[in-house]
Design a protein that fits this description.
Length: about 400
């Protein structure tokens, strides 16, 4: 507290003093206190409060009309950080997310694609917000990427200076999503290694849920048995989540409980061969809608043929940019293909061999090309010459 302004020290002292006094006055009946503690350990509203308090605080939504913070924090720093985060999100919501939702909803309706199927999002990183913008009606989401799940701190128990550190780490983690629409792999790796509190993708997923008007109901760590069946364990903010996480959440004003599952996994052919439990899970999945973006052209290579095959098999509807599955992999006897935007050569970070001449030719063919894009999403963020391909499996 030595670095806090005097008025904040006074306020924190008053809060702590009031809390201590409340505990003293509440201890008149030890048995009642113990009974209450035992009941609370089984009370799901306690877990809900823990998660929502921390997630809302982290997401810059504290002290709104719907949510009031009841723990010590640096009010000036929090307000400045929240204003910045909320301004950044408002920009991408208006210029990207809302336009994506409207555009894609019209496509799904016109092609009569079932919009509430489960969603499969490999190479996802911690990107919940774009997946949710495209498939808001889905009840379940499965995300796979190399990045660790990590932990999400209990902000209600951190000292204000530690809260500030974690908030700055969060703003830094999200910088590429705000500016470019995707996580840069090496930035994410560096951030996760150097951060004190935010060590994985869980904070960015929870942030995405909060700012899109969802409440967190439950968070569990997940492992898989040899048959690809889930094994769950409840966790609280601050607990380690292992290689997988399941989040139950709900849209405010809705009664539909949704679930998101994320696994930290290598989805190359070698990775799936060594991870028989994940392979069993993927083999058992029902039809999905799928989404891939900014995927580094990995599925252009033979080493990623298995995950490519899973997407082709699972997907009733599939949205990707040119960094996903090569255009030549889609059999037009089995799939309808709809192209949008502008096809450009890969950005300089990737070899020119990733350029697809057949896709370029398809972009001038009215059989495939269906119009421009009203938003920018992908590697060509600086020029906004973006491309999207929607693929619909024929019956």
């Amino acid at each position: 507290m030595e670095n806090l302004p005097f008025y904040l020290k006074s306020r924190l002292f008053y809060i702590l003093y009031s809390f201590i006094l409340f505990l003293f006055l509440s201890c008149g009946n030890d048995k009642k206190v113990k009974d209450k503690e035992i009941i609370n350990e089984e009370d799901s509203t306690r877990n809900l409060s823990n998660w929502d308090s921390s997630v809302m605080f982290f997401s810059g939504l504290g002290n709104t009309k719907e949510f009031t913070l009841d723990f010590p924090y640096d009010t000036l720093f929090y307000r400045l950080n929240s204003d910045s985060m909320n301004s950044n999100f408002r920009d991408i919501r208006l210029n990207r997310l809302d336009k994506m939702t409207k555009w894609f909803d019209e496509i799904l309706k016109s092609i009569k694609v079932q919009s509430d199927l489960p969603v499969f999002y490999p190479f996802s990183g911690g990107d919940f917000i774009h997946m949710n913008a495209l498939y808001p009606n889905a009840s379940s989401y499965l995300m796979l990427a190399l990045e660790p799940v990590g932990t999400f701190p209990n902000f209600t128990e951190l000292a204000p200076k530690d809260q500030n550190t974690a908030l700055l780490e969060g703003a830094n983690l999200l910088r590429d999503i705000f500016k470019r629409s995707y996580f840069i792999t090496w930035n994410m790796e560096k951030d996760i290694k150097s951060n004190t509190y935010l060590k994985g993708i869980l904070p960015t997923v929870l942030w995405g849920m909060a700012v899109t008007n969802h409440s967190i109901l439950n968070v569990q760590s997940i492992t898989l048995d040899s048959a690809g069946q889930y094994i769950y364990k409840h966790i609280n903010p601050g607990d380690s989540s292992g290689i997988g996480v399941k989040i139950e959440f709900i849209k405010k004003g809705s009664n539909q409980v949704k679930q998101l599952i994320y696994f930290s996994a290598d989805v190359s052919n070698a990775g799936l061969k060594n991870n028989k439990a994940l392979s069993a899970l993927l083999n058992s999945l029902p039809p999905h809608n799928s989404f891939v973006k900014a995927a580094s052209y990995l599925m252009h290579f033979p080493d990623f043929s298995k995950i490519r095959g899973h997407i082709l098999r699972l997907s009733q509807g599939y949205l990707q940019d040119d960094t996903g599955i090569p255009f030549s992999s889609f059999d037009t006897a089995k799939f309808s293909i709809y192209l949008y935007g502008d096809y450009e050569e890969p950005v300089a970070d990737f070899p020119s061999e990733m350029y697809q001449l057949d896709l370029k030719e398809a972009y001038v063919d009215s059989l495939f090309y269906k119009g421009s894009l009203p938003f920018s999403l992908g590697y060509h963020w600086s020029s906004k010459k973006q491309n999207q391909m929607f693929v619909h499996k024929l019956n």
